[in-house]
Specification:
327 residues
């Protein structure tokens, strides 16, 4: 039986089911504390496995494209925050204060790794450069995102910890397991790659755990009273506008700087995406528990929109590449 075209992918359905579960049966008390511990361990395992999976040869092969990497990092950590600041008054009019802050948090995050590389490969772009750029963005985000949050997010009621404290927490929870996995990569890397399906399960499972824990805390604090349907629609429009601007600007800048088509594809897909896998645990560290669920709504929505739009865009790039090869 073929899957209906209108039906979202399995992970999106699981994400919606998790939000529904947290809305109907939120974790509280000792149950919530247990989920916090399990979530922390799952995230550490996730980043350890990503460190073990990442091929050093692929990273070295992509290092020579330094102009491309600088542009991708500039799009991720300069262009996005500038757009967030420029659109901040509009966000303030369209959204609730916490959701507006969530949009700014979204702008500070690193790029995705898996989907950026997957879409680059599908579109016939420079895959080795995509691996290097996306990985560098993810690692640098450990340090840059808390700094950007301290500049863009000025509400003392939202931020949970100081910049140095936040960097320390993120390094302990994310970077340390990643480095441990990289150090062990020569011995366990092949095994991890053979069990890629298991890594995908840990990846998605850890995100679902954090989403359930975060939304449970938010629901207990009255999340859905703060986000009525009209506000959710406004949030969708805001995320779509932000993505449209970044896709346009990354495409224009890559062409203006004289990059070839393969490199343009890499810049567009690595420079316009934001990581749910990194953003969820970072929000957990950076923000007070009652507002984490609200902070994550813009990221979750943006993530789904970018996947759908980039899937169409990648197929268009691929068709052009095939047409060029046949002519």
């Amino acid at each position: 039986m073929t899957r209906p075209r209108f039906l979202p992918d399995n992970f999106t359905l699981c994400l919606l089911a998790t939000v529904t579960l947290a809305s109907l049966w939120p974790a509280q008390g000792l149950v919530a504390q247990s989920f916090e511990l399990i979530t922390t361990l799952a995230i550490a395992l996730l980043f350890f496995l990503h460190g073990a999976k990442l091929s050093r040869d692929a990273v070295v092969a992509g290092l020579s494209h330094w102009r491309l990497h600088l542009l991708v990092l500039a799009c991720t950590f300069v262009l996005f925050p500038l757009l967030g600041l420029l659109l901040k008054p509009l966000f303030g009019l369209m959204l609730t204060p916490d959701l507006a802050v969530g949009m700014l948090f979204l702008c500070t995050l690193p790029a995705t790794v898996q989907s950026a590389i997957a879409f680059t490969a599908l579109a016939r772009g420079n895959v080795s450069a995509a691996v290097c750029s996306a990985s560098a963005s993810s690692l640098l985000g450990v340090f840059i995102t808390p700094l950007l949050v301290s500049v863009l997010v000025v509400s003392g009621d939202v931020a949970r910890s100081g910049t140095l404290d936040a960097v320390g927490h993120i390094m302990l929870q994310l970077l340390l397991p990643f480095v441990a996995g990289q150090l062990l990569q020569p011995w366990i890397g092949a095994t991890v790659k053979r069990h890629a399906a298991g890594l995908k399960f840990v990846d998605q499972g850890s995100i679902l755990l954090v989403v359930y824990t975060a939304f449970s805390a938010a629901v207990v604090e009255g999340l859905w009273k703060q986000v009525p349907p009209l506000v959710l629609l406004s949030l969708t429009v805001a995320c779509g506008l932000l993505l449209a601007l970044t896709l346009t600007l990354t495409t224009w800048s890559s062409r203006a700087l004289g990059f070839g088509k393969e490199d343009e594809i890499t810049i567009v897909f690595c420079g316009s995406k934001k990581s749910l896998a990194s953003g969820v645990p970072m929000a957990k560290v950076l923000f007070a528990a009652p507002v984490v669920g609200v902070m994550l709504l813009p990221l979750m929505l943006f993530h789904q929109i970018q996947l759908m739009v980039c899937a169409v865009l990648a197929q268009r790039y691929a068709r052009r590449a095939r047409a060029g090869a046949e002519s």
